[in-house]
Structures are given as structure tokens and as C-alpha cells.
């Protein structure tokens, strides 16, 4: 299931994007957990992880470009698709590594084209694997199944989703224990 944020101050445009996501899910069999936000401030203060963000550029208060720059400071790899009235913002979007742009009023055809493109990328990312050498051999861990890694001195514990057994390996990090999340 993909976690998607829709950050749009206009209720009409926000509802349109939500309907398009429902339609796209029906058309493709995809499943989404969609969270709508009315402002950049509301989005940033939610402190939630997302797989994809639709972000209006022209919003009162914190605009979409400022919101994107702040978001990028702690989520550098999350794809952003800007939604805007003016195509001239496209060049500025590259400053925050935008994945795509939708010009208002958004058509379903343009929306679906962006979703097809991002879905292909996400499916490729889901197939990425990490090879972990252990005492019993090398284990291949799919990126999508890695929840977090715990570190205790030189031991690494890979915690996996879907009830898979954790994998313990020997690492080379000195110092106290810590936890890394994906």
C-alpha cells in the first residue's frame, strides 16, 4: 500500500485529486492510504512518512516551494509532484528535485500518466535488495521488507516486515547501540 499526501489549499482541487486517486486505484488495482492537507504547515507538522506527495505551489502562508525545500531536508527521496496554475514554476521545481508537474485544471489523463510513471519507479525500488553476509550464508533482503536496523556494538539486527524472521549479522560500527529506520 502506497502512502500518499495531497497538499492543496483549494477544496475543489483537493477533492479532484482525491477522486483521481480513487479512480486510478480502481483502474489499476493499486491500494493507497491517502492523507489530505490544507496547507504546507499542516503537512510538515504531521511528521508522517509518505511514498508520494502531491503539492500545490501557490498556497497562502508557506507556499509549495518552501514546503518542498523543508520536506527535502528530512525526506530527500520522496517523489514530489507539483500541482500549479502556472507552468512557469516548472523550472523552480527542479531546485527541489520535483518528479513531475500537473497544471490546473488537472485532467485525469495527465494525472494517470504521472501515476503510471511514478508507479514504474516505485515498483523498481521495491525490487531493490540488500545482500547481508551472516554466519549461515548471504541473505538477500528486499528493500520493501526492511523495517529498521538495530545496532548493538558490532551486531546488526535487520527487522523485517510481514512476520519474516529477523536477520542478525556482524557489522563494523564501533560504539553504543542505535536504531536506523527506513
- Work out the helix count: 5
Q: In which range does the helix fraction lie?
A: 25-40%
User: What is the top-level CATH class of the largest domain?
Assistant: Alpha Beta
**What is the H-and-E element order?**
EHEHEHEHEHEEEEEE
Write down the CATH topology of the largest domain. Rossmann fold
- In quaternary terms, these chains amount to single chain
Q: Would you tell me the structural class of the helices and strands?
A: alpha/beta
Spatial gap, N to C terminus: 16 Å
What is the assigned CATH homologous superfamily of the largest domain? Response regulator
| Strand adjacency order, main sheet | 2-1-3-4-5
The shape, in one word, is elongated
For the secondary structure, the number of strands is: 11
Query: Mind telling me which CATH architecture of the largest domain this is?
Result: 3-Layer(aba) Sandwich
Parts with pLDDT < 50 across at least 5 consecutive residues? 173-182
Supply the number of structural domains.
2
Biggest beta-sheet profile? 5 strands, parallel
Report the mean per-residue pLDDT as an integer. 84
Cα-based radius of gyration, to the nearest Å:
19 Å
Taken as a percent bin, the fraction of beta residues is 25-35%
Keywords: DNA-binding, Phosphoprotein
GO molecular function: DNA binding
Protein name: LytTR family DNA-binding domain-containing protein
Structural topology:
Layout: E1 2-7, H1 11-28, E2 32-37, H2 40-45, E3 52-56, H3 64-72, E4 80-84, H4 90-93, E5 100-103, H5 108-126, E6 129-134, E7 137-142, E8 146-152, E9 155-160, E10 167-170, E11 178-181
Parallel strand pairs: 1-2, 1-3, 3-4, 4-5
Antiparallel strand pairs: 6-7, 8-9, 8-11, 9-10
Amino acid at each position: 500500500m502506497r502512502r500518499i499526501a495531497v497538499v492543496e489549499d483549494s477544496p475543489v482541487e483537493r477533492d479532484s485529486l482525491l477522486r483521481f486517486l480513487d479512480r486510478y486505484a480502481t483502474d489499476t488495482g493499486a491500494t493507497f492510504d491517502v492523507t489530505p492537507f490544507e496547507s504546507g504547515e499542516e503537512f510538515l507538522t504531521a511528521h508522517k512518512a509518505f511514498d508520494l506527495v502531491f503539492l500545490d505551489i501557490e498556497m497562502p502562508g508557506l507556499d509549495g516551494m518552501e514546503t518542498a525545500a523543508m520536506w527535502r531536508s528530512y525526506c530527500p527521496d520522496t517523489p514530489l509532484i507539483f500541482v500549479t496554475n502556472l507552468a512557469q514554476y516548472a523550472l523552480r521545481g527542479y531546485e527541489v528535485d520535483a518528479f513531475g508537474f500537473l497544471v490546473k485544471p488537472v485532467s485525469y489523463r495527465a494525472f494517470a500518466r504521472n501515476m503510471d510513471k511514478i508507479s514504474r519507479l516505485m515498483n523498481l525500488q521495491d525490487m531493490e535488495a540488500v545482500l547481508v553476509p551472516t554466519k549461515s550464508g548471504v541473505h538477500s533482503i528486499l528493500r520493501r521488507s526492511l523495517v529498521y536496523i538495530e545496532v548493538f556494538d558490532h551486531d546488526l539486527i535487520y527487522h523485517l516486515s510481514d512476520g519474516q524472521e529477523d536477520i542478525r549479522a556482524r557489522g563494523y560500527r564501533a560504539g553504543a547501540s542505535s536504531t536506523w529506520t527506513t
